[in-house]
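Example record

The entry below shows one chain as it appears in the dataset: sequence first, then structure tokens.
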Amino acid sequence: MRGSVHICLPNLSKDKERFEGIAKKYNVQIRGIHGEHSESNDGVFDISNRQRLGKGERSLVQDMYEGVKAMIAAEKEILATKK
């Protein structure tokens, strides 16, 4: 199963190491909205679960949820430091 969310993270995406670190921690993939290996020019990304087999649907969606939640928190943190 593959679940995905399109989300706008323009500030977090500028810190590639942090962005990829969150993705790795929560077992999610970062893609442009036009599919695998596509880039994002406007800060909108497709975030999906990395694992597809061997785990239940609930667990896969939970990983994606936690990863997206962590990315949103990081985006908000970056915005707060800019003010």
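Notes for this example: Helices lie at 16-25, 57-82. Residues 4-82 form one domain.
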